[in-house]
Amino acid sequence: MNITEFFNTLTPDVLLGGFVIFLLRLIDMCLDTLRMLFVVRGQRVIVWILGVTTSIIYVVAISSVLTGAKHPFTILCYGVGYATGNVLGMRIEERLAIGFKQINIVSKNKGHEIAEALREKGYGVTELVGQGRDGTVDLVSSSVKRKHAKEVRKIIKDIDGAAFITEDDFSPVQSGTWRK
Fold first, then answer.
1. Which class in CATH covers the domain with range 100-170?
2. Residue 177 pLDDT more than 70?
3. Confidence label for 176 from pLDDT (cuts 50, 70 and 90)
4. Which residues, other chains included, contact 40 with Cβ-Cβ below 8 Å and sequence gap of 6+?
5. Residues of the chain with CATH 3.30.70.120
6. Would you say 128 and 139 are in contact if contact means Cβ atoms under 8 Å apart?
7. Which helix (H) or strand (E) holds 155?
8. What's the distance, Cα to Cα, between the start and end of the chain in Å?
9. Where are the alpha helices (DSSP H) in 68-110?
């Protein structure tokens, strides 16, 4: 099929079918991406519900492609919906910010100041002194809810823009006190 034939065969039915397939795959993959992220966080009930939902939507979407017009446009819509759904699912998960972050800070000489500023905001903090390549450094560690990680990074950067910061996702084993 050449480009002229392609555009000449884009009937309203093909366009509508492609749009529906795109939306089905967008929703399917968005939910499936969230499902995988909830798997990592051990949220069994949410994973089950999302698994059933995404399976049903997938079957409807793939059936539409295989039994419909079989036009290159609908196949393209299937692929674009798949890719867009993955990205959108990741964005939604970032906004939900479910889970916890372990934030580790290495500061040349402002570790105590960072620790105190975080404590003032209600965060639990552990301070250590370490030996780096160029001498003594302050090591500061704080476990926070993911929704607070951005605020914590801002506090750190406002005090020491040169601080080395790492973050890791984790699952608490034993409860502690978390800032609301």
1. alpha beta
2. no
3. low
4. 169
5. 100-170
6. yes
7. helix 149-159
8. 59
9. 72-96
